[in-house]
Amino acid sequence: MNVNLLYKDREWSSAGSYFDYNSVTKDLGLKAIFNAASTDSITRMGGTAVTSFDPYLGLSVKRVMGVPLKTKEEIGYRQEIMQDCFKKQSMTDSLYRISKTVLDEWEKLGRKNNSIGEIGTKAKLITDLKVLKLLYDGIALIKKIFSENAETLQSEGLKSLYDRLENEFSEEKTEQLEALIDSVSFFADIYGNSRELDSFSVRVPRIKIECGLMDGLKIGDLKLDELETVVMKYNKQYGIGSRVKGKISSLTPGVISLYKDQAIQEDAEAIEFLVVSHVYSYCTSFVSMLGAFFDQFHFQIAFYLGAINFKAALQNCKIEFCFPVAEDAEDCLEYDELKEPVLSMEIKGKTVGNTGRLSGKQLVVITGANQGGKSTFLRSLGVSQLLMQCGMVVPAKRFKSSIHTSVFTHFTRREDSAMNSGRLDEELRRMDRIVSNLDKDSLILLNESFATTTEKDGSRIAYGIIKALKEHGVRIYTVTHLLSFAQQTYKESASDEKVCFMCAEHLDNGKRTYKIIPHEPEMTSFGLELYDEVLGS
Amino acid sequence: MISLLSKNPNKSKKSGENSQLTVLSDLNFDQILDRICLEWDSELRKMYESFPSSKEDEDYRKDIYQDFKKDDVYEIMSGHYSLIRERREYSARKEDAYELIQKQTWYLREIHTYVSSLELMHDKLGNSSCSSEGLKELSAFLDGYLSDENFRNMSNIINALWKELSDFHVILTYEKGRFTLTNGVTEGAYDKFLSECFPEEHHTMTNPFAGTEYFSDLENEIIKLFQRKNHSFFKKLEKFCKDYPEVFSEQISVFESEIPYYLAFAKFQRSMKEHGFDMCTASKSDDTLSASGLYDLALALTNMDNGKETVPNELFMDKGESFFVLTGPNQGGKTTYARSLGQLIYFNKMGLDVPACSSSVPYYTNLWTHFSVEESIESGRGKLMDELERLKPIMHESQEGAFIVINELFTTAANYDAIEMGRRVLDYLTGIKCRGIYVTHLGELSKNSKGVVSLIACVDENNVQTFKIERNTPAEATYINRQVLKYHLTYEQLKERFS
To answer: Are B49 and B37 in contact (CB under 8 A)?
Structure first.
């Protein structure tokens, strides 16, 4: 039974992940988003926010975000479920807790050391039965929560999962499973405290088997006709009463008494073991299926719970958010009050939002003042693109963008001292790997690429690469200080509507607004002004 | 006594007397036999290691093998042989059994299988398309043997006992510390319930009593109860074992040991066909030796495992031609061609099909091979001496009319000597009407000798081996270019490397 909360027609898999996702994560500062996803700010006790940190939630968001959705339908499917989860936060939370409890308990029972279906010892079989009961109880709880919320669910994903649960675990099926579990309950203490017996009673089996006589008169061709667990008063096996009974039955014709000798008792135990193993052999696929279901369910629901936490973090910082609109059209990009969430969350939303219409622009070249918000703007575009393509909300009043097959980042990493030697070489190698992996529908974000060499050389390299990428059809957003490159591109693309130049806004009085606006590239990056501001003229 | 391997078994040499072990290893037969004999007894291999002792026997076997190739006969023989295997298994179990009543029931099983397998084969063979003398004799023998009154009586008793035993069913109930036993059958209700719960699943309960031939303590008690309840059956069984202590016919044993010779090869041939490798029956010819789509079976097996292609070749040796001298580049398929030729002759002599699409082969008195070997350290002789010693039995008048496969003779001798010695060998062998193939790097051997045909292993325009063998004069210069190209050492290549 599939969970299908991330995709309509399949389960989660990490195939199709962004190329070098670790670099993308680092360049765009996504760690802050994963941290926000891990921080539960829903639970409130007596009006006080009690925050707890569950790294699994952030991990799920990280992994899901790493594999971009490729169509409007896929994004729409996830956004619908997300909206249901936003409305039903405590349901989402409960579903997550149940799956977590089940998997944690299973772990305690030694899941890693016990592979399903492997024939083993009595101890292993007992564990297997406990796991069966655990998974069965877990699924029953999940079904119950769904049925309590069924009427208010709107999304196709959650509704069809509920339908699948109803079909797979119909009343008849539930009764059968309970009967089956009960019939083998003599073998393992699967009821725990829920059906405790008094100290004079014990659960014992009643087994009826039909046998044929095989070659060499060996017994074989077994058919199991009856199996049940019966509660009977406890008898000490070697007590006087038992011995007398045993003596009597051992003398009864047509009866083989267990009290006769130890070896026969061992044979009887072997039969009990094999009968229960036989019953369990029917359940192995079911247990595997439930195990796979819980693994997927836990992971998928964790993603939605993590997304709720991220949304809550934005709300806490009073950052506006929206469900972005994904467009099939090439080179679409429109945004109102777009913010970069990492910095915004850090300084509690006191950041400047950007508004712009860049549809039809394949190449966006951003130049201008240092500390003017260029890199932040570039990151806000990248982060929002990733958020959109995983079905999450975007920190903007409105965000609309094309869907890209992949997103690449090529950022200069000044902070990495290990790269001091041969940095250009490293940059070129990184670019080489990116070029080998991108296609014409990709988006690439370049942040001060090739600034590790002279302006002249860097410009020449950037010019060649970017021209080739553009001709290939790749969408490029680049922040650059390479003014020769910017100037040359500007001159050559005077009549090319697909190219757009932007600058960090710089008021006449020299004040920076941190807004990025369309503007022709300037010959200065206003570094001197900054120098003056910091060090004085 | 009737045999499927020889028309006159009493006159034939005993197996192993005309063993062809050297030929087998030179032609890579080890690998082929490993595959053919994979699932069969070790005795089978020996049968493939020696030729039939006369032309008459070769033809006798050829006829029988044609029958084994037919679908209906193949099915009959495969079915029969799997019953033989079952029967042998039961016999081994009987020997191992500890309890007397166990031994008796295993014996019942063994004899029941013997009788029913012969009856089945007899019925089916009578209605089959078999036409060979050998199988017709087998069928006629079965007619008499199975209709004999003693055999009929035994068969009736066995069938009755077997039915009675197979029909026994008991119900074992385990509750409150005791087992009870009743005769009868159940619905298998819980198993049905399990199948309803999990319709996709099908499991058979592991038998707690399996795993050992001996009775467990509980089983022992159950069988005792069972014996008490069904006393008359066990009395009858005991009587049967006393009345029929030895039932197998010696003639049947001979047949059973010979059937795998044909069956294993027919099975092998079928599996080769599934992999796209044809084998055919060589037609008889007075003088012309020919084959189309001829390949080295051992190489085909290796290539099949590695997913590589095997290149087939043509063969035509006309009337009046007696020896091929094959030259060409290293790794060009020369030895493979020589081997495939040897295999063709070998299988044909054995009365079996040959690795080719079509073929015609004259009768050869014998098959000899001479492949170069590493210098023998043990004997301390030089390699040339070794080669000459090994040539001795081949260069003998008694080998008149044989087929000889020679691969690289006299490689350690000086060129002039090697050419001279090679010529003498060829002259002698053609003189005693032998035919064959001589693989060598000495192109001179193909010139000026009567009846000698020059073949070369071909290369394409880039000097890459094609593994095709053609009639042509040797052209040694191209081989050197190929080697240079392979190592990128031509003038142009070196220029490019330095640029």
So the answer is: no
Q: Closest residue of B to A228, CA-based?
A: B190
Under an 8 A CB cutoff, do A282 and B175 touch? no
Split into its structural domains, chain B has a count of: 3
The β-bridge relationship of strands A475-479 and A363-367 is parallel
In a domain, B102, yes or no: yes
What separation, in Å, do the N-terminal and C-terminal C-alpha atoms of chain A show? 71
Closest to A274 in 3D by CA, of A130, A129, A122: A122
Closest CA of chain B from A272, distance in Å:
9
- Other Cβ atoms less than 10 A from the Cβ of B175: the count is 16
CATH of A318-535, one of 3.40.190.10, 3.40.50.300, 3.40.50.880, 2.60.40.10: 3.40.50.300
Return the minimum-mean-pLDDT range out of A65-79, A334-348, A385-399, B347-361.
A334-348
Q: Which is it for the CA torsion B411, B412, B415, B421, positive or negative?
A: negative
- Specify whether B362 is located in the same domain as B466: yes
Domain identity same for B215 and B79: no
Q: Of A223, A226, A274, which has the smallest distance from its Cβ to B206's Cβ?
A: A274
Q: What is the ipTM of this complex?
A: 0.77
For B131, other C-beta atoms within 10 Å of its C-beta total 13
Answer whether B197 sits within 8 Å of A213, measured CB to CB.
no
> Phi, psi at residue A213, to the nearest 5°?
-105, 120
CB B346 within 8 A of CB B32: no
pLDDT in tens, A232-253: 876 655 556 666 665 665 566 6
For A204, nearest residue in chain B (alpha carbons): B176
DSSP β-bridge partners for residue A53: A39
Whether B48 shows a pLDDT value over 60: the answer reads yes
Which candidate from B206, B216, B223 shows the least CB-CB separation from A278? B206
Chain A nearest-CA residue for B188:
A225
Question: What tokens appear for A48 in the block?
Answer: 């006080």
Interface with chain B: mutation pick from A177, A207, A218, highest number of B CBs within 10 Å: A218
Say whether residue A258 is in contact with chain B using an 8 A CB cutoff: yes
Which residue in B has a C-alpha nearest to residue A257's C-alpha? Answer: B178
The reported pLDDT for the residue numbered A302 is 97
Say which residue, A450 or A353, is predicted with more confidence: A353
Residue A284: partners with Cβ closer than 8 Å, 6 or more residues away: A116, A117
* Domain residue extents for chain A: 318-535
Angle, helices A122-149 vs A156-168, to 10°: value is: 130
Residue B34, domain member (yes or no):
no
Mean pLDDT of chain A: 85
Q: Does the beta-carbon distance from A222 to B207 stay under 8 Å?
A: yes
Q: Which of A169, A183, A219, A283 to mutate to test the interface with B (most CBs of B within 10 A)?
A: A219
Contacts of A211 in chain B (CB under 8 A): 169-172
Calculate what percentage of chain A has a pLDDT beyond 90: 53
Range of the domain at B114: 52-168+230-274
* pLDDT tens per residue across span A42-73: 554 444 556 789 999 999 999 999 999 999 99
Pair B433, B475 in one domain = yes
Say which residue the tokens 């069965």 belong to. A136
What's the CATH number where B403 sits?
A: 3.40.50.300
Whole-number Å distance between alpha carbons of A78 and A157: 8
Contact A209 B174 (CB under 8 A): yes
Asked if A208's CB is within 8 angstroms of B173's CB, the reply is yes
Are residue B195 and residue B306 in the same domain, yes or no? no
For helices A72-87 and A262-316, the axis angle rounded to 10 degrees is: 90
Picking from B274, B307, B332, the residue at the C-terminal end of a domain is: B274
Q: What is the pTM of this model?
A: 0.62
Q: Is residue B265 part of a domain?
A: yes
Q: Give the SS3 label for residue A197.
A: coil
In the block, which residue shows the tokens 């200065």? A524
